[in-house]
Amino acid sequence: MGRQDTAMTTMAGTKDFQHPRFAKLYLAVADRADRIGGAVHRGRLLSGLTGAVIEVGAGQGRNFAHYPDTVDSVVAVEPDDTLRGHAEHAAVRAPASITVVVGHADALPAYTGEFDAAVASLVLCTVPRLEHALAEISRVLRPGGVLRFYEHIRSGNPTYGRLQDLLEPVWSRVGGGCHPNRDTVTAIESAGFRIEELDRFPFKPVSYLPAFTHVIGRATKT
Ligand SMILES: C[S@@+](CC[C@H](N)C(=O)[O-])C[C@H]1O[C@@H](n2cnc3c(N)ncnc32)[C@H](O)[C@@H]1O
Prior knowledge:
Elements: H1 3-11, H2 20-46, E1 51-56, E2 71-77, H3 81-93, E3 98-101, E4 115-121, H4 130-140, E5 141-152, H5 158-174, H6 184-190, E6 193-203, E7 212-221
Parallel strand pairs: 1-2, 1-4, 2-3, 4-5
Antiparallel strand pairs: 5-7, 6-7
Bound molecules: S-adenosylmethionine (SAM).
S-adenosylmethionine (SAM) is lined by residues 17, 26, 30, 56-59, 62-63, 78-80, 83, 104-106, 121-123, 126-128, 177.
């Protein structure tokens, strides 16, 4: 079964991931965020990356312009039809060889051990089953493969973390399923990855909201 066939079999499963109103909002939010620092973060996320790469939940393809020429190819998986349409256009303009495919992190359209690296960017906050998604990412990576991640995570301040817990139901409805309160770094470690690099910093992509703790990191499949 080729990737296209695999993609077709997972396409039926993407109807739960259609958030057209959020997609429209995110097109504008991500554009602004990238202008005030997000683009630099994306460059750091992908710097020095090599080999065959899978990007999970690529959105409208805001990372595509930042892939270095050391990358052989990128398979960009995106379930949302609106964002995937934009990603297809971004892939044409990108310097790297990028194929955009339909699919989701619960059943990635990829063979076991197929990739040298996986990229998760502002997506592990949103996947419905974080542990399952990380197990899938691990499955499609070769032994010693690398996970690069750029995520907003639960605040290290317990009071603020509890506020994020309270905010989560409403936030998730408005934010296309995003959970602001996930301890994503611990989840990555629990999924069998060794954290090699981790930078934690506050970032405020939306002017009317407080800064969120963000991380940029590199982890190896053990
Ligand atoms: C906040 S956007 C981030 C998009 C992009 N990665 C970026 O860096 O701008 C969250 C993305 O996760 C995608 N997504 C949601 N659930 C997913 C899943 N189960 N598997 C893969 N992607 C998913 C959404 O469709 C959306 O594109």
